[in-house]
Design goal:
By secondary structure, this protein is α/β, with parallel strands linked by helices. The protein has helices spanning 2-16, 20-55, 74-77, 103-116, 131-144, 154-167, 224-234, 241-250, 255-268, 272-280, 304-318, 323-331, 341-344, 347-356, 362-374, 391-399, 403-420, 428-445, 457-467, 471-488, 494-507, 512-530, 535-548, 554-571, 577-592, 596-613, 619-635, 641-656, 661-676, 680-698, 703-728, and strands spanning 58-60, 92-96, 120-127, 171-177, 196-202, 214-218, 339-340, 378-381, 386-389. Strand 8 (378-381) and strand 9 (386-389) form a beta hairpin. Helix 14 (347-356) runs antiparallel to helix 17 and helix 25 (577-592) packs antiparallel against helix 26 (596-613). The termini are far apart.
Length: 732
């Protein structure tokens, strides 16, 4: 502009004093002006156009509005920086998660903040309903940017936008919301650029979404604190924290569920306690405790059930038809946090799943589980061999099942759990997981597993609890079972009698007197209902005799066991487990009366039969081996007891695991054997190690820990006494 002004000054002077020199100079200036002025004006115009172009943004699509009480989660996408441009290009960020975790709201919050900065040339928000929706939005953006004319074919216009996105030096943001099929996006992923960002929300987590310049970001449930903070704001009235914590846990911290529950509470003028009662009412479906579709909050378009319906339908279409639904039917009856993967490949589960859907193999079931995982309906972790799901997905599936379907499913699930639950389970965590799944199954469908007959899973879980030393929990389960059996199948049903036998056995540890009385009452009923020669009656006779023996003459007790053994051999046969159990009791009482040779002989007969029938690693066989060693130790029969108990302890560790109660008990017997051979210091060391293990497994105040402390004190006293004796002995 300085050149232009100088030219104007010269022209003004030339008009005042015309001369040859001036005219010559004027012609020269005119030539300069003719060249410089248009160039300057053109440069100014281009600058103004660039500034105008950068200040005018193009927005395609409507960003969802911010919901009430929106919970910020900036750690997922971060905040738009002070400068959009960065040295390295941003990867495409794919927000993946279960329907209802708030993926769209997170992406929308980021888009609103980015748009508010004022440095975006292009912002495109695309609700993805298929390939056409992407091409249509791209074409609209290309026309709005004037990089194609209005008559351009949509696909050609979309192609031109892709070129512009790659070459432009202006900032852009593209959001694909609800990408349900990654195949729709195969050729239309926005290019990687230092000037652009792409955000995608999806329920899928396919591997293709996490390759190259794409980063898969898992959007999880709210944390406990986030859930409580949301409820205390959204309910609309003061909420005590403990009630908000409990309700958030009931809803498993799912953002969509929390929002719809809060709206329901506000609409009905309830409180959290009342709402929790409705939520736990098995007579109500999930649809009964959320607002109707025309009353949903925050522009929600679907209820919780409808939110997942499309994903379930997609899973069913992806594999052999029907298999996904069948798998979810079983999932809905188990513990949501951890279902063993081998549950789904058990014989009962495979038979049900492949019968209900198209015929398939174990590999088909694993493929469908993988599909359900990709759709975020379950999490199938091959490394941990666990399947997880959300508690409200389970509720939605259960709501669609009628009584007949629940009856069938309950038995299938119970059969499958029983099959994968080995008689000896060395993995304590797995056994705890099996017990947890069983308790959830009982809670969901207990009545179906009692009438017309009681499933054996009830006794497998209580036996497991007794083995783990948790007699109180076993007793509580059996008492509840017996109460329900009495109402459904009657107190005299054989299954009710079986429950009474297991209950008496579980009570033995904490209340031996009541256990003995319970067995005597049970024996009277067994004789009355099933007769004196029924196997149940014979087993109960044995249990009553064991408990009467403490108050009976030992010789009389031996005679009674010999009589019972004769009846068992005659009625049941010599190899029946009941017969062998009575024979083992007889051997024990031979030892109690001091007839060690007879006891040793009978025990070895039992051990040989059990090894032949059950195998050397069976719990019953190992228990008899332990009893033989204890008898030989007590009777003084020449034997290297510590070596034998050490071998047995190694066997128990291999079969049961190092922390199993039977393993620990055998190690305690080993410590005693070491001390009996004169090695008090070795016995004390073994007890000291055992004390740490008992405290770790059972807790510091457990009875077994107290017993081991006494044993350690006993052997340590012998060590101290020996040291004092050595200190006082005369020196030579």
């Amino acid at each position: 502009m300085a050149v232009v002004m100088w030219g104007r000054h010269l022209l003004a002077n030339a008009l005042v004093v015309p001369s040859w020199d001036v005219l010559e100079r004027a012609s020269w200036v005119a030539a300069v002006v003719a060249v410089v002025v248009p160039a300057a004006v053109a440069g100014r115009t281009a600058l103004l156009k660039r500034r105008t172009r950068r200040q005018t943004s193009v927005r395609i699509g409507r960003i969802p509005p911010e919901p009430a009480w929106f919970q910020q989660r900036p750690d997922l996408l971060g905040q738009p920086g002070t400068r959009w441009r960065s040295r390295n290009p941003w990867p495409t960020q794919v927000l993946s998660g279960l329907g209802g975790v708030g993926k769209t709201q997170i992406a929308a919050a980021f888009a609103r903040q980015a748009a508010g900065r004022g440095d975006l040339k292009l912002l495109v928000w695309i609700p993805v309903y298929g390939l056409d929706s992407i091409i249509t939005a791209y074409a609209e953006a290309a026309r709005a940017l004037a990089i194609v004319d209005d008559q351009a074919h949509p696909q050609q216009a979309a192609d031109q936008l892709m070129v512009w996105l790659e070459q432009t030096d202006q900032n852009w943001l593209i959001v694909w919301d609800k990408l349900d099929s990654p195949a729709d996006a195969a050729d239309w992923w926005p290019p990687v650029s230092t000037h652009g960002r792409t955000i995608v929300t999806t329920r899928r987590r396919d591997a293709v979404l996490d390759v190259g310049h794409r980063t898969l970001i898992t959007v999880d449930l709210f944390t406990a604190d986030e859930s409580v903070a949301y409820l205390r704001r959204a309910v609309g009235k003061p909420v005590q924290r403990q009630h908000a914590v409990a309700l958030a846990k009931d809803l498993d911290h799912l953002p969509l569920a929390l929002a719809q529950a809060a709206a329901f509470i506000r609409d009905r003028e309830l409180d959290c306690v009342t709402y929790r009662r409705r939520l736990s009412d098995v007579r109500l479906s999930l649809a009964d405790v959320v607002p109707p579709e025309d009353g949903l909050p925050d522009n929600h378009r679907t209820t919780l059930a409808a939110t997942w319906a499309l994903s379930i339908e997609a899973a069913d279409k992806a594999g052999p038809p029907g298999l996904a639904h069948s798998i979810l039917h079983l999932v809905c009856l188990l513990q949501p946090e951890a279902i063993p993967l081998d549950f789904f490949t058990s014989t009962p589960a495979i038979d049900y799943i492949t019968l209900e859907g198209e015929l398939g193999q174990e590999s088909d079931i694993l493929d469908v589980l993988h599909t359900l995982d990709r759709l975020n309906l379950v999490t199938c972790n091959q490394r941990t061999a666990l399947v997880q799901t959300h508690v409200l997905i389970q509720r939605v599936i259960r709501d669609d099942l009628d009584a007949d379907s629940l009856d069938v499913l309950a038995w299938i699930a119970a059969d499958a759990l029983l099959e994968i639950w080995p008689e000896v389970e060395p993995d304590r965590l797995r056994e705890q997981m099996l017990r947890a799944n069983t308790l959830v199954l009982f809670e969901a469908a207990r009545a179906y597993l009692i009438e017309p007959r009681t499933h054996r899973l009830h006794f497998r879980i209580t036996d497991s609890l007794v083995e783990a030393g948790n007699h109180d929990a076993a007793t509580a389960i059996l008492r509840q079972l017996l109460a329900e059996q009495t109402g459904l199948i009657g107190a005299d049903h054989v299954d009710s009698l079986t429950t009474r036998r297991h209950l008496a056995d579980a009570m033995e540890e904490n209340d031996p007197r009541e256990a003995a009385a319970a067995y005597r009452r049970l024996l009277d009923d067994c004789v009355r209902i099933m007769g004196p020669e029924h196997s149940y009656t014979l087993v109960t006779r044995c249990e009553v005799m064991k408990r009467d023996a403490d108050h009976d003459n030992p010789q009389h007790t031996v005679a009674r066991f010999e009589e019972l053994l004769g009846d068992c051999r005659r009625i049941l046969g010599p190899d029946d487990p009941v017969t062998l159990g009575v024979q083992a009791s007889l051997a024990n009482w031979h030892g109690e009366t001091g007839h060690f040779d007879a006891a040793n002989e009978v025990y070895h007969e039992v051990l040989a039969a059990e090894t032949r029938i059950f195998g050397p690693d069976h719990p019953t066989t190992l228990r008899t081996r332990n009893n033989v060693l204890c008898l030989q130790q007590d009777s003084g029969i020449p034997l290297n007891g510590s070596v034998s108990f050490r071998e047995l302890a190694e066997e128990y560790t291999r079969v049961f695991g190092p922390d199993h109660p039977r393993t620990l008990a055998t190690r305690a017997n080993l410590a005693s054997a070491i001390g009996a051979e004169g090695d008090a210091e070795g016995a004390a060391d073994a007890c000291r190690t055992l004390l740490d293990d008992y405290a770790r497994v059972y807790g510091a105040d457990h009875f077994e820990v107290l017993v081991m402390r006494l044993a350690l004190s006993y052997w340590q006293a012998h060590v101290d006494a020996a040291r004092r004796t050595n200190d006082l002995s005369p020196k030579r």
